[in-house]
Amino acid sequence: MSWKSHIVRKSLADVEPYRPGKPISEVQRELGLQSAIRLCSNENPWPLPEKVLAAVRASSEEICRYPDPASYRLKRAIAMKWGRSPSEVIVGAGTEGILYSLFQSIIDEGDEVAYAVPTYPMYGLAAAAAGAKRIEIRTERDGGGSGIERLADACGPRTKALVICNPNNPTGTIMNRADLTALANSLNGRETLLILDEAYAEYVEDPKFASGIDLFDQLGNVVMIRTFSKIYGLAALRVAYAIAPKPVVETYLKVRKVFEVNSIAQNAALAALSETAYIQEVREKTLAERERMSNALREMGIHVQPTQTNFIILDFPNARTVFENLLMEGIIVRLGDDLGFPGHLRVTVGLPEENDLFLQGLGKVLKRIAGR
User: Fold this and answer.
1) Which H helix or E strand runs over 161?
2) How confident is the model at residue 83, as a pLDDT?
3) Across 115-133, average pLDDT
4) Contact, 132 vs 160, CB < 8 A?
């Protein structure tokens, strides 16, 4: 048995695997339920445009062939969308796929990756997989300032990258334009790469929000990551992209998986990029449902935190009890404990009928708990 412990990387001993939201099939199987709704993974539940579905059908006829390893057509379309060169574009298998390869391409032994917490747990896992030291930075939540000084001061001479989720998952908050610019300028002098995960950017309403592309045009130390898994509705296909400095892209290409993004994903994403009317419609419907849900929850006496995303955050001291009771009602939400955010539940804004079932189920659960 000793050889097995010798083989396993010791630096991963304290790393916990990522705990994704429960699939509907798992909840039905475990609890014996006939039906369930999934509001735990911030997916876009609205039906996809016919153009995207047609691209999926056409691509499925060629699955005996390897995909284009360069994602040539998709990469050019992304470059055109943002007014960049294709040589500044990375296409990868979801945000985590890009992060894993990106960290492997820039991390040397002894280097650090920093990130503010609570945030998407995959940053720490990808950093650990690349052998980096993880620097977790606690920033004040409400009314306590932006924490910019803490973020900048935590980045030392061996900090290769600082990752900011903007808007942040799981808190739903944004770093505003002034703070983001100040942080980027500070890191530029320290030779630290600022990686901005903008998975939820299409849902932002706050005019103080600034995309990483604005900073990319001004500074040379910014990587902006976007995904097709959220508002574009292609979560199952695992495709995302990044805009990054050319030297970073060139190094990334040395370590990325050659056929990482399959043909169906490439062609579906290419079709989805041109569906601007659909994206705007989904945005408007989602924001309207988010407002309706938030108002209904406040009327129930529940504290709902402000959010710039397609999910809402609920404060519950007994969050695990509420979460487990909701599961018994066939309602899958996200427990904040799994995201480093205890005392909270994260609830995706779903279809209107799903949101109604959630509100009804939560009311039933709270009455049940109160009657104990």
Assistant:
1) strand 159-165
2) 95
3) 96
4) yes
> Starting from the edge strand earliest in sequence, which strands make up the sheet with 334-335, in order?
304-305, 311-315, 344-348, 334-335
102 assigned to some structural domain: yes
Report the predicted TM-score, pTM, of the whole model to 2 decimal places. 0.95
Residue in the structure block whose two tokens are 């009317």: 277
d(C-alpha 115, C-alpha 357), whole Å: 36
Give residue for tokens 């050889």.
Answer: 3
Residue 145 predicted with pLDDT over 60: no
| CATH code where residue 217 lies | 3.40.640.10
Helix (H, G, I), strand (E, B) or coil at 136: strand
Q: What is the pLDDT of residues 50-59, one digit of tens each?
A: 999 999 999 9
Task: Please compute Rg for the chain using Cα positions.
Answer: 21
Identify the domain containing residue 308 by its residue range: 19-47+277-370
| Exposure letters 66-97 (e unless 16+ CB within 10 A, then b) | ebbeebeebbebbbeebebebebbbbbbbbbb
